């Protein structure tokens, strides 16, 4: 999964700096950067992958769950913060330092109400010559220019022609934006203190709880959709809990009250006790739902066996 996401990341970042007339080429360093960047996110989603596997291959033993719980706790305590902390301290923006490109000459590009044509682009002095067509002017709307500096990017793309061809749809933009916020939040918490990371790592406990939803319905697709929905909800809640201003106003009030409790006072200083308690509560609710549904299913099975015996 990390390799796939790294490949998508590499292609996306290369497209950001691609200009008309050039070709994409595999970049090993950018690909390695993508693997390091997305490995924490893949480890976070391992509970979903385990749930899907157990839906497809049901097991009655609790040994796989215990083994996975140990691996999950180890990942959240050692692997995820270690990789995220390394990324935040040592992962330089290679794309900005080495892959920056200037617009190519010989193409018409739209810039607002104007259409710009670069006849020549000097890579060393970063000066351009060409002409500009002002589509909002009905009169003499064609003007030439010489030795002008290359304008700064108006968006993440170097070339507007590439942007018009490969720009992401709005729904995917929202997904990428929230995913980027989650990765940045993970790196920030890992870079701070261990107490702050422990508060953040309780999200892993809530995500572990989604495994209990694997058999809540006899329809496998319902279980899959429910697990995906709860997982997205947990991630979204934690991102908002750490980044949203409205959430912060409520959290500050609650955290001030929690700081008077001896066992939580230290966490209130370094972390976010409100989100920690929310994640623990989500885990407890999911586990309780699992046991209630299991008891109901067991009762129904016993009733069905009794009905069969009576018919016999």
Task: Give a nutshell description of this structure.
This protein is an alpha+beta fold. It has 12 helices and 4 strands; from the N terminus they run H-H-H-H-H-E-E-E-E-H-H-H-H-H-H-H.
Explain this structure to me?
With 312 residues, this protein is an alpha+beta fold. Helices cover 66% and strands 9% of the residues. The chain has helices at 2-16, 28-44, 46-56, 63-90, 94-98, 160-166, 170-191, 194-208, 220-243, 245-258, 262-270, 273-311, and strands at residues 108-111, 114-122, 127-134, 142-149. Strands 1-2-3-4 form a 4-stranded antiparallel β-sheet, with no helix packed on it. β1 and β2 (114-122) form a beta hairpin. α3 (46-56) packs antiparallel against α9, α4 (63-90) packs across α7 (170-191) and α4 (63-90) crosses α8 (194-208). The longest helix has 39 residues, at 273-311. The chain is elongated and about 85 Å long.
């Amino acid at each position: 999964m990390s390799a796939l996401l790294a490949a998508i990341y590499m292609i996306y970042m290369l497209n950001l700096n691609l200009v008309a007339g050039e070709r994409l080429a595999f970049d090993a360093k950018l690909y390695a950067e993508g693997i390091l960047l997305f490995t924490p996110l893949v480890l976070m989603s391992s509970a979903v992958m385990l749930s899907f596997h157990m839906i497809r291959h049901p097991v009655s033993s609790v040994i796989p769950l215990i083994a996975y719980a140990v691996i999950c706790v180890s990942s959240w305590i050692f692997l995820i913060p270690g990789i995220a902390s390394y990324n935040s301290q040592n992962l330089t923006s290679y794309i900005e330092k080495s892959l920056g490109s200037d617009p190519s000459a010989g193409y018409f590009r739209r810039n607002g109400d104007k259409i710009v044509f670069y006849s020549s682009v000097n890579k060393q002095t970063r000066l351009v010559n060409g002409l500009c067509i002002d589509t909002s002017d009905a009169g003499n709307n064609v003007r030439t220019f010489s030795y002008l500096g290359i304008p700064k990017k108006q968006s993440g793309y170097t070339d507007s022609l590439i942007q018009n061809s490969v720009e992401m749809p709005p729904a995917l933009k929202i997904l990428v934006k929230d995913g980027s916020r989650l990765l940045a939040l993970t790196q920030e918490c890992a870079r701070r203190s261990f107490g702050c990371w422990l508060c953040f790592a309780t999200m892993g406990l809530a995500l572990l709880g989604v495994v209990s939803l694997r058999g809540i319905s006899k329809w496998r697709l319902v279980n899959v959709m429910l697990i995906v929905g709860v997982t997205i909800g947990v991630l979204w809640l934690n991102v908002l809990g750490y980044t949203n201003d409205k959430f912060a106003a409520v959290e500050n009030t609650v955290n001030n009250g929690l700081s008077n409790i001896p066992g939580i006072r230290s966490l209130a200083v370094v972390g976010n006790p409100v989100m920690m308690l929310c994640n623990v509560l989500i885990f407890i609710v999911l586990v309780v739902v699992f046991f209630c549904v299991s008891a109901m299913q067991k009762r129904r099975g016993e009733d069905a066996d009794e009905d069969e015996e009576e018919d016999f």
